[in-house]
Each structure stands twice: as C-alpha cells, then as structure tokens.
Amino acid sequence: MICGGIKMKVLVVGSGGREHAICWKLSKSPKVDKIYCAPGNAGIAELAECVDIKAMEFEKLVAFAKENSIDLTVIGMDDPLVGGVVDVFEAEGLRVFGPRKNAAILEGSKAFSKDLMKKYNIPTAAYETFTSAEEAKKYLETAEYPIVLKADGLALGKGVLICENKEDALAGVDELMLDKKFGTAGDTIVIEEFMTGREVSVLSFVDGDTIKIMSSAQDHKRAKDGDQGLNTGGMGNFSPSPFYTKEVDEFCKKYIYQATVDAMKSEGRPFKGVIFFGLMLTPKGPKVLEYNARFGDPEAQVVLPRMKNDIVDVFEACIDGTLDKVDLQFEDNACVCVILASDGYPLAYEKGFEIKGMENFKGKDDYFLFHAGSKFNEEGKVVTNGGRVLGVTALGKDLKEARAKAYEATEWVDFDNKYMRHDIGKAIDEA
C-alpha cells in the first residue's frame, strides 16, 4: 500500500468509455497526483496524459510503468486481462489491479465458466459445449427453441446469438464455427437454454476471499429501440435497477456471489479485481447469464459516479486482500447513460466527423460526457473514431429525473451520423 502522504502516479490501460469513467473517478482521489492512460482517447486526454501504447503491448506497458515510477496500474479491458497482462506486471514487482490470467478465464472461456457453475451448483441455464460443428448441429435437431448460441472466447460482447428456430440455429453454428465471424472465439461454442426475465448487471470488487457488491445496473444491448436489431457492446445503461430487489440481492449473496469467489479459490484461481455478474431474473429465480472479469462498459459510467468511496482505497484493498475492511457505499440517487453511436454500428459506419458542443458539459456537476470512440485529427479537432462514440450520462434524485436529464444532454453535443436509442431506461416506467 502507498502511504506517508505520497502522491501516486496511476496508469490506466484501455481507450473506451469505461476507462474514461475510471480516469474520472481516479481524478477525484486526493491520493492521485498524475494519471496516464494507454492508449486513451480525446476525452480521457483532459484528465490524463495519453500514452501511445496499445493495450496488448505488455512489455511496452511494463517498461513505461518502470520508467515513470507508476505506483498503480489499472487494467480496464478484457483482452489484456485474458492475455495475462497482470501476471507480466506482477512478475516485475509492479502493483496492478485486475485478475491474473488463470482467473480472467472466468470471462475468457464461456465453457470454463459454465462448467464452474455446474460443478459448484451456481444457478445458470442448462447447456452443452461443442468443439465440432457437426455435433452441434446434431444436438440442435432435437433441441427446444428459442435457444442461445455463444462463442466460447472474447467477441466484444457480440458473440451471442438468440435463435428462434432450428434454421436460425444451424446458420448460427456456421457463422460462429465455420465462417469464423469472431475468429478463434468460435472454435468452441456453448449452446444453452433460452431464459426469460429481466436482465440485470451487478459489478463487484473482489480480493480473492471477500466480495463487495456495487450498485446494480441495467444494460441495453440491442442496437435499436424496443430491443430490436443486432447485439452491441451496450447502447445505454441505468443504475440502480428497480428490478434488483432486496429479495434478489439476498438470494444472489447466498447462492451466486460468494459462491463464485469460493469456487475460483477452490480451483486454484483466486480472483482479484472486478467480477461483473450478468444476471437473468427468471420466474424460477436469479440465474447467471455470464461473467465478465472487469468493469462493464457502459455500466462503469453509471455506477462509478454514484460511488462514495475513494476508488484508490478500494483498488488497493483488492490487491492487498483487505477488502473486508472497506465499507463500500453509494449515493442514494440514480444515474442514466445514453450512448451516442455512429449510424450503422455495430456493422459498417463512417468515422472522422468533428464532435461539437462538448463545452456545454463544463461546470455541470450532474452531467458527464464519457468518450468511447474519439480522437484528435491532424488539425487538433476532436472527431469520431468508433462505433460507440460518447456516453452522455446524468445523475438525478431518481431514475426518471436522471433519464430526463441524460436525454436533455444528448442535444448539447452533435456530430454527423449521430445515432442513439430513444428508450434507454424506459423499463423504469414499468417498475
């Protein structure tokens, strides 16, 4: 632990809205003197010094951390975690927040996580795992529909196909396993029962033994209004979820959260970092849809603004195994994030359009503009540089107020090809 009043230098690895939210939260810590972000984006550049090192360039990241006397590195993205970046940092005696490679497999392999849940009786959908397209198709001949196909490996949150009938499912197997739409992520696939209910996201901090739950959130994965269109990395989010009741919380604490941490420890894979629980609130009770081994994006953008704690204290407690001494607290308010995307996302879209109106967010404490896909062009102007461009985020006394404020703020900023869903948080009205 850093002590004695020394101001810290922190390196954040990643370039999305999640990393912008982490940098923003770090900037609020009196313990932090300097923030670097590799590679960062145009919005992060207002809070941190962006470094031209990619997230998968582990040796360069380590060299930078050593040369610049970095006190703490925070890994935001899934790819480097699954690739073992934490192990590389630790081997050099550097302090780093995130799970080691053998624990990040919780997200890196859906087959592993499903087998873990089965072994330790953690509630999840019934499933089968396949490494042969032929065997998968044979199974689908007698399966019940709708059914869900999942690429085993990382697929940018998009490697999940919900198939209404056998024809769609057979085509889905081709897409994942033969056409390699998501590369080697589809070498193995998981086929599981289709669950009905409300989806809820719950982030947690873990130190290998202790787990502390953050406030609940609810994502909107589909590209278009009414939950239509293709799966995306997330088109918006709100926190807390009115559907995450006290009863749901008690059930999950008893049968899912601590059970997962204990299971990973029993497997010789102690988990330190953030576990993201993707839950389905089914008629038969909460079940795990999936695990992620890091903050969600855009979940981080609605959860971190509500967190009372100094995030440095929490990061260090996770590393040092002292999370049991942390009283994790959240404001009694609400937060809504609406993603402004490039029209055409998640398929083909144009980029390079100037983003205008960002100054409208200056000095407004309840409003945040988290950058996901932005960069500086040759003229020094901030332009679009991705499918998801901005996360327009607002706090309110309750969800309805936060939602109204977030949508109001979407009008403050503009760029060509701007696209968004207009029903983020609409479920609030049904709660």
Mean pLDDT: 95
Proportion in helices: 25-40%
* Shape call: globular
Instruction: Label the structural class.
Output: alpha+beta
Q: What's the CATH architecture of the largest domain?
A: 2-Layer Sandwich
For the biggest sheet, the summary is: 9 strands, antiparallel
Task: Report the count of strand segments.
Answer: 22
How would you describe this protein?
The chain is of the alpha+beta class. The protein folds into 4 domains: 9-101, 3-Layer(aba) Sandwich (Rossmann fold); 126-193, Dna Ligase, domain 1, CATH 3.30.1490; 198-325, D-amino Acid Aminotransferase, Chain A, domain 1 (2-Layer Sandwich); 334-430, Glycinamide Ribonucleotide Synthetase, Chain A, domain 4. Helices cover 28% and strands 28% of the residues. The chain has helices spanning 17-27, 58-67, 78-83, 85-91, 101-108, 110-119, 133-140, 166-178, 246-266, 299-303, 311-320, 399-409, and strands at residues 8-14, 32-39, 49-50, 72-75, 96-97, 127-130, 147-151, 160-163, 189-193, 198-207, 211-219, 222-224, 228-231, 236-239, 272-282, 285-292, 334-342, 367-371, 374-376, 382-384, 388-396, 418-419. Strands 10, 11, 14, 15, 16, 17, 18, 21 and 22 form a 9-stranded antiparallel sheet that branches. A hairpin with a 2-residue loop joins strand 15 (272-282) and strand 16. Helix 7 packs antiparallel against helix 8. The longest helix has 21 residues, at 246-266. It is globular. The mean pLDDT is 95.
Task: Give the SSE map.
Layout: E1 8-14, H1 17-27, E2 32-39, E3 49-50, H2 58-67, E4 72-75, H3 78-83, H4 85-91, E5 96-97, H5 101-108, H6 110-119, E6 127-130, H7 133-140, E7 147-151, E8 160-163, H8 166-178, E9 189-193, E10 198-207, E11 211-219, E12 222-224, E13 228-231, E14 236-239, H9 246-266, E15 272-282, E16 285-292, H10 299-303, H11 311-320, E17 334-342, E18 367-371, E19 374-376, E20 382-384, E21 388-396, H12 399-409, E22 418-419
